[in-house]
Amino acid sequence: MAYYHSSGSSAASGFEYTQVGHSYANGQSDSQLNDPPFQPFQESQFDIFEWYPQFQSCLRYFLDHAQYNGPIQAVAAFVNIQLPFQKTYNPVLSSKHTGPNSPAGPGPGPSTPSTTRATGKMPLGAQVPLGAQMPLGAQLPTSTHTALTPYIRRLVATGFDYPAVLHGFFGDDWVGGIGPMHEAERRNYMFAAKSETWLKVKSHYDMDGEQHVPFLRPLSNVTEKEIQSAEAQWSEWLAMQDWMVGPRAPEQEPKIKQEDN
């Protein structure tokens, strides 16, 4: 797997991804463009019980593999977001439970991703809270869960939410697992840009712990279908602001006035 990023006007021209056995197409057919707008998590055919195992697969891949991958670490550093194992408090080293009662790992020596996941020890660069005294050989408590939404949001806002990058972060099941979340966050980004100034949008996408978003980029690879879907939901939100819901909801299709003969 290889990532390349170079300076340019857009991430599309400077960011490439290659992996043997996988290919992605950014284009859409005419039939897809003519389909009704897709609304993530709101479609009647969306099955949450079918989605959840795929989401869990994405979470496991991200925690057990992607966060220890060099290219993923490079992207995370470039967009200024900490990976789970890099967090100062409650780092997440693996999707499997590890902690003080875990079996002892290998003897002293450089820590590797595999030994880190096996022993639950803190990776290089982890910090002990100021003033805390840890007994020799003791381990800091770790968690086994992390939210994926902050990473999706950061990739969307910085223009790195390409299929290849999402595949690198979340694995083979990313389309079914985090695909609906990705669609929703792209729409949220469009709504944020429509609602507020650049400065307020940027502050909204900043995160705690000095994880400020370094830059914002317009959405990439936007299709007419995606714009139509966003327009439909934006109209619904405007109706909500005016309490035009329930029995007062606007008609979906305009009525045709008939002239009296």
TrEMBL record:
<dbReference type="InterPro" id="IPR053267">
    <property type="entry name" value="Verrucosidin_biosynth-assoc"/>
</dbReference>
<protein>
    <recommendedName>
        <fullName>Ilp is an apoptosis inhibitor</fullName>
    </recommendedName>
</protein>
<feature type="region of interest" description="Disordered">
    <location>
        <begin position="92"/>
        <end position="122"/>
    </location>
</feature>
